[in-house]
Design goal:
By secondary structure, the chain is of the alpha/beta class. The chain has one domain: 3-Layer(aba) Sandwich (Trna Endonuclease, Chain: A, domain 1), CATH 3.40.1350.10. Helices cover 31% and strands 31% of the residues. It contains 4 helices and 7 strands. Strands 1-7-6-5-4-3-2 form a 7-stranded mixed β-sheet, with helices on both faces. A hairpin with a 5-residue loop joins strand 6 and strand 7.
Length: 147
């Protein structure tokens, strides 16, 4: 997949919102439609990206990536694909190992360069709970796209 690069002359991704914005551009360029702060199962996903019939949930963090992994567990009932977006100079090896083991994708937002790209592509989740997925589909119809 192609990377998304923003202005290289300043620091980026200092806030979670900046991470979300960078990931939105990356996914938008790849043909996804994105919604922000989507409620699901009593929680809220930072981003939900859809392309065709496929639904990808993404949790964004500037720190505490382990919390993102915990949040991702809750998305297994409704998402075809799950990913974590992190803003770090160097992506933690432990994050990459755990994400790979669980089938999650990892999007890396490099604070110094402003570059956003996929480090790990998520594998298709086979733990969908169909009734809850239908509820999510209904809810998504009432949420505006980010772009």
């Amino acid at each position: 997949m192609r990377a998304f690069v923003i202005n290289k002359n300043c620091r980026h991704f200092e806030t979670e919102q900046e991470v979300v914005s960078g990931v939105v551009q990356l996914l938008k360029n790849a043909g996804y439609r994105i919604r922000i702060e989507v409620p699901s199962l009593g929680q809220s996903a930072d981003m939900v990206a859809t392309r065709s019939r496929w639904v990808t949930f993404i949790e964004a963090k500037t720190r505490d990536w382990r919390k993102a992994l915990t949040q991702c567990e809750a998305h297994k009932n409704v998402a075809d694909y799950i990913a974590v977006a992190v803003a770090t100079v160097n992506p933690p090896t432990a994050l990459l190992d755990i994400a790979n083991e669980r089938g999650y994708g990892v999007i890396h937002c490099q604070p110094r360069s402003g570059r956003t790209d996929w480090l790990l592509t998520p594998r298709r989740n086979d733990e969908l709970w169909r009734p809850q997925r239908l509820e999510l589909s209904k809810a998504l119809r009432n949420i505006d796209y980010e772009h």
